[in-house]
UniProtKB/TrEMBL annotation:
NCBIfam families: Rid family detoxifying hydrolase. Pfam families: Ribonuc_L-PSP. This is RidA family protein. Gene3D superfamilies: RutC-like. It comes from the Bacteria. InterPro entries: RidA (IPR006056), RidA_CS (IPR019897), RutC-like_sf (IPR035959), YjgF/YER057c/UK114 (IPR006175). Belongs to the RutC family. It comes from Deinococcus antarcticus.
Length: 125
């Protein structure tokens, strides 16, 4: 049975989806973009946007009773792969070894024309 995870400490879904879904011993988040919990776009470049995305992910995980240390897989979507190093510098501040698996891809466009979106899969067992 799936359980929907929602928190006011991260931006509300801007479409027909949930912030996260708990299913058995797994937690799967929707992609987080750099909106504040109030729904405002964070100013700045990919570094500032990545910082807000990570804060949003932490809030969603906290609502499910977990944290980034339990993340087993991340997927990073970038508007421009030339911004990988700047995103990665912020991303690595939030994880410690052993690091989760990760895929990073450049996409044609992201919601609200943001620079970065990240989703995670968490092992709750």
């Amino acid at each position: 049975m799936k359980e929907i995870i929602e928190t006011p400490d991260a931006p509300a879904a801007i479409g027909p989806y949930s912030q996260a879904v708990k299913f058995g011993s797994m937690l799967i988040t929707s992609g987080q973009i750099p909106l504040t919990p109030a729904g405002e776009l964070v100013a700045g470049g990919v570094a500032e946007q990545t910082g807000q995305v990570m804060e949003n992910l932490k809030a969603v995980l906290a609502a499910a009773g977990t944290d980034l240390s339990r993340v087993v897989k991340t997927t990073v979507f970038l508007a421009d792969m030339n911004e990988f190093a700047a995103m990665n510098a912020v991303y690595e501040q939030h994880f410690t070894a052993p690091y989760p698996a990760r895929s990073t891809v450049q996409v044609a466009r992201l919601p609200r024309d943001v620079r970065v979106e990240i989703e995670v899969i968490v092992d709750l067992s």
